[in-house]
Write a structure and sequence with these properties.
It is a single chain. With about 140 residues, the chain is of the alpha/beta class. The protein has one domain (about 25-130). It is built from four helices and seven strands, in the order ααββββαβαββ. It has helices spanning about 5-15, 25-30, 70-85, 100-110; strands at about 45, 50-55, 60-65, 65-70, 90-95, 125, 135. The strands form two sheets. It has a five-stranded mixed beta sheet. Strands 1-7 form a two-stranded parallel sheet.
């Protein structure tokens, strides 16, 4: 196999002009800190509170109950959750390789819902919520 010098030179020049940054920012490396007013694993799940898992996949799709949904549908579902009594806890799980711009877009949609606002926000972010501590109750 013969490597052509012009192809190698072009590839090296491309890497040099882009600063060798080929991979986009992803959740694991650049944006894994949740919103300040959102819960985390250490904050647990309220006793007898229902949990609604929301997931951002590595390809950027958003899943609700393991079904891909649009941003408009997520907005609607978050609005409906805010009107429920009792209000459920929304837990955002994110694939480590999900792009940061997509993660931030989903966080922004969720954060606009009343359920995610204020010091008693019912929005959380983290992995494997079923293993989180249960708070309150007997």
């Amino acid at each position: 196999m013969r490597i052509y010098p012009a192809i190698v030179s072009a590839a090296l020049a491309s890497l040099l002009t882009t600063g060798c940054s080929l991979a986009p920012d992803n959740y694991a490396s650049s944006c894994s800190a949740p919103r300040e007013h959102w819960g985390r694993e250490k904050d647990g799940i309220g006793h007898l509170r229902t949990v609604q898992p929301i997931y951002v996949a590595s390809d950027g799709s958003t899943l609700w109950n393991k079904v891909v949904i649009s941003d408009a549908t997520l907005r609607h579902y978050m609005s409906v959750m805010s009107a429920m009594n009792p209000e459920p806890q929304a837990v955002l799980g994110i694939a480590p390789t999900a792009a940061c711009n997509r993660v931030e877009a989903v966080r922004t949609i969720m954060d606009a819902a009343p359920i995610c606002k204020g010091p008693h926000s019912l929005c959380s972010e983290g992995w494997n919520w079923r293993q989180w501590p249960e708070l309150g109750g007997p």
